[in-house]
Amino acid sequence: MGKKILVLNGSPRLNGNTAMLCEEFMKGCREKGHSVSIFNLGQMEIHGCLGCMQGGRDTKSPCVQKDGMEKIYPVYREADIVVLASPMYYWGFSGQLKCTFDRLFAVAECSQNYANPVKDSFLLMAAEGDTPENWEPVLHSYRSLLKFLDWKNCGEILAGGVFRAGDIKGHKALEEAYRAGKAID
How does pLDDT run across 80-131, given as a tens digit for each residue? Predict the structure, then answer.
């Protein structure tokens, strides 16, 4: 039976470099028989976390705010794999992805001890820079997040040297993304 894969695309550009990484990854997943759901976060109305600690009272609608997250929560809950896809913004995730991920805490609030559902994860990222120093802050953040959530890091596909939409065409990261999706068992 195939895996359920959730792709959270934090890029505001529907046809940008991050979107192209997502497409190749999803193509590989689908060819392998997995089901894939993608949310283009920049096109959704998702408000920032209020830090109210009032979530978790309704497992189907865990957050007190009612916005685009209502579509994400059920898919997130069922997903085996969560893909965090983002352009690099100031050596971190885009605000769209960070905001969405913060709001997933409402699901953890459904557990008495605030336990997050355990998932496998991939990182797909496009960036203008392409040096180890450029990648280090975001990789540290991503790996630390997974460590504290007790999630498994299944791969990091980094496309450096891409800035304008479409710069990624022909980039080796597209083939890496496709192969990573195709390799999921």
Answer: 999 999 999 999 999 999 999 999 999 999 998 999 999 999 999 999 999 9
Mark the ranges of the chain whose per-residue pLDDT is less than 70: none
Handedness of CA 83, 3, 30, 185 (dihedral sign): positive
CA-closest candidate to residue 21, choices 183, 177, 161:
177
Q: Which helix (H) or strand (E) holds 156?
A: strand 152-159
Which parts of 41-151 are beta strand (E)? 81-87, 120-126
Q: Domains in the chain, please, with CATH?
A: 4-182 (3.40.50.360)
Spatial distance between the Cα atoms of 82 and 57, rounded to a whole number of angstroms: 24
